[in-house]
Amino acid sequence: MADSQPKPTALIVGVGTGLSASFARELAGAGYALHLTARDTSDLAGFAAETDATLHQLDGTDAEGMADLVANLPGELRVACYNPSARQRGPLIELDPETVRKAVEVTAYGAFLLGQAAARRMLDQPLENGRRGTILFTGASAGVKGFAHSAPFAMGKFAQRGLAQSMARELHPKGIHVVWINIDGGIRNVARPERTEAADNPDSMLNPDAIAREYMHLICQDRSTWSNELTLRPWVETF
């Protein structure tokens, strides 16, 4: 007899060929109904077919668009993940203020929009295995320490981390698991030559499939041991 139980819904905001794609495959394999967003979805049709996902074209900083999308997702939203970030590199005195503003909006304001919309949906859902849902934010070491010539990225990631900490303290007691994941190192991406390792330096970059498995572990954590932050780094990374 076919299983008549509806699939739980998972939303990933900001999907590309790297970590988000690996996480989407893990979620699809675990039986989630996937909804994936990107500013440009024109190259994602094949991937959507592979994971049986629904695509949505969305800029993460679009407040009305984010609210409408999350409010109208079918089923019960059990997982929401925010991946986008933006950088502007350069000496502080040479940074363009408007570009800095946009970078912070993508990294921090968009994270707030997803977090707020997802929390609204999840608070109305029944507890399942001790939780109403999981909200994940893909962070970076820039949220722990600011690097020279990278002020906008640090501003965005520090704000994103603070958002996640505040959300966790407010929402964990209500059954919503909130986690900020510090990706402390470069993520390997075979589709981008600049994101691959030298032959003499194996595992010096994070394997996106391995990161995705850690994300799945967070989704399944017992609520008596919920993490609110997780740091992932290659074994050769200095810190």
Structural overview:
- The protein is of the alpha/beta class.
- The protein is 37% helix and 17% strand.
- It has 6 helices and 7 strands; from the N terminus they run E-H-E-H-E-H-E-H-E-H-E-H-E.
- It has a 7-stranded parallel beta sheet, with helices on both faces.
- Strand 1, helix 1 and strand 2 form a beta-alpha-beta unit.
- The longest helix has 27 residues.
- 39% of the residues are buried.
- The mean pLDDT is 94.
Number of helices: 6
- Oligomer category: single chain
Which secondary-structure class do the elements indicate? Answer: alpha/beta
Biggest beta sheet attributes? 7 strands, parallel
What is the end-to-end distance? Answer: 53 Å
Helix content: 25-40%
Strand order across the largest sheet: 3-2-1-4-5-6-7
Low-confidence stretches: none
Features of the shown structure:
single chain; 239 residues; alpha/beta; seven-stranded parallel beta sheet; 6 helices; 7 strands; globular
Topology (elements, then pairings):
Elements: E1 9-13, H1 19-29, E2 33-38, H2 45-51, E3 54-57, H3 63-71, E4 77-82, H4 97-123, E5 133-140, H5 151-171, E6 176-183, H6 208-220, E7 229-232
Parallel strand pairs: 1-2, 1-4, 2-3, 4-5, 5-6, 6-7
